[in-house]
Amino acid sequence: MVNVISVERNSHAEKCGLIAGDKLISINGHEINDVLDYRFYIMESTLVIEYLRNRERMSTAVVKDEYDDIGLEFSTYLMDEKKRCRNNCIFCFIDQNPKGMRETVYFKDDDERLSFLMGNYVTLTNLKDADVERIIKMRISPINISVHTTDPELRVKMMNNRYAGECLKYIKMLDAHGIRINAQLVLCRDINDGGYLQRSLDDLLSLENIESVALVPCGLTGHREGLYPLTPYDAESARAVLEIAERAGDKSLNEKGMRLVYPSDEFYLLSGKPLPDAEFYEGYPQLENGVGMIRSDSDEFYECLENLSDMEYNREVSIATGEAAYGFIRSLADSAMEKYKRLTVHVYAVKNNFFGGSVTVSGLVTGGDILAQLKGKPLGDILLIPENMLRAEGDMFLDNTTLDELSGSLGVKIAVTPRGGYELCEAMTGIKCDL
């Protein structure tokens, strides 16, 4: 039973008499406990809705087009609380956060509903047989799973959860019932790579409904006091991961017609090996996981640049990015300046002193580090930052520095650039692309 906080005007729910404050009990006899129940059971064209109003049990009927929403709104997106992670993974990034950040940064979610609704990855350790049966019944697909390793004993060790190995059975259950699976392996050097990685890839590629497997190196900050000792990847160890991954991908391509195994961009940057062509990524199924992002952005940027009109004015801009992407962004800026002699682009690699360690990605750069390192530098008319540096609301960095505070302290206008090569090219040049 969940609380209705508002009803959309002129909606099916309003027309059948539902009001804010009602408690939704069931739809067509099915109990409603969360957003998955609600979304699944409102798909039918005829609904019998039971609800509680002032302790009186009532019912109403709705006739609508199939799949139409009925217009109820609830206190939270999930209609109840997020499920908290029960693991204590040896590589957990949240455990490596410095103190003093806003409270929400320290929350660990592990919620299968967010996997379906938002693309989050789940470990399956929060699930029971009934939860998996519900996923199968509702055809919740695809589901994104943080596997890390298919060796049960090693998974227990890595996740510090005695159920972590046992719940691997759910992967086979989901696969057997046609649920499509995207898998993620966060790799820790000399722990779940090497032979363990080969086993994991063999096991995952044997599934009929596997859609992709992403390999991502664990992120290590400078705040690991008392945590499990981990060693960052270097060029040699990154190349070893790529060798296993590319061999498994080649085999899958030959046997299944799809590569399915995709190392993250970080492994290529660390190894010094060139990034694969776009065809390698087969439509970029794990782009938001940092897999193929540089290739995708690069191809889009150059396509956009080639089709831009002439620049009729002088323009000077600056770009703040993480150390990992600096060479890539610098090369794009150089290409733009080669085409437009009236364009000046300053690109700054911001060292992540806030998190320290080997953190080099742009998404974890803080406002304080930008201010400390760019103060007094030539910034031109506008400073560009990628949107992934900010929280979802788009107004604040991880260290609670706001955009307005940073802009005022640097004395420059700041523009937030959406992810994508077209968007970066337009922001850099100030010219709208007609593609």
Chain-wise SSE layout:
Blueprint: E1 2-7, H1 12-15, E2 23-27, E3 30-31, H2 35-41, E4 46-53, E5 56-63, E6 72-74, H3 112-118, H4 129-138, E7 143-146, H5 152-159, H6 169-176, E8 181-187, H7 194-205, E9 210-217, H8 235-256, E10 261-263, H9 265-271, H10 293-306, E11 315-322, H11 326-339, E12 343-350, H12 367-374, E13 382-386, H13 403-410, E14 413-417, H14 421-429
Parallel strand pairs: 7-8, 8-9, 9-10, 11-12, 11-13, 13-14
Antiparallel strand pairs: 1-2, 1-6, 2-3, 2-4, 4-5
Helix pairs in contact: 7-8, 8-9, 10-14, 12-13
Bin the strand percentage: 15-25%
Going by CATH, the architecture of the largest domain would be Alpha-Beta Horseshoe
Give the overall shape, derived from the CA principal axes: globular
Distance between the termini: 49 Å
The CATH topology of the largest domain: pyruvate-formate lyase- activating enzyme
Structural class: alpha/beta
Tell me about the biggest sheet? Answer: 6 strands, antiparallel
Number of domains: 3
Overall mean pLDDT stands at: 90
Fraction in helix: 25-40%
Question: Would you identify the regions where 5 or more consecutive residues have pLDDT less than 50?
Answer: none
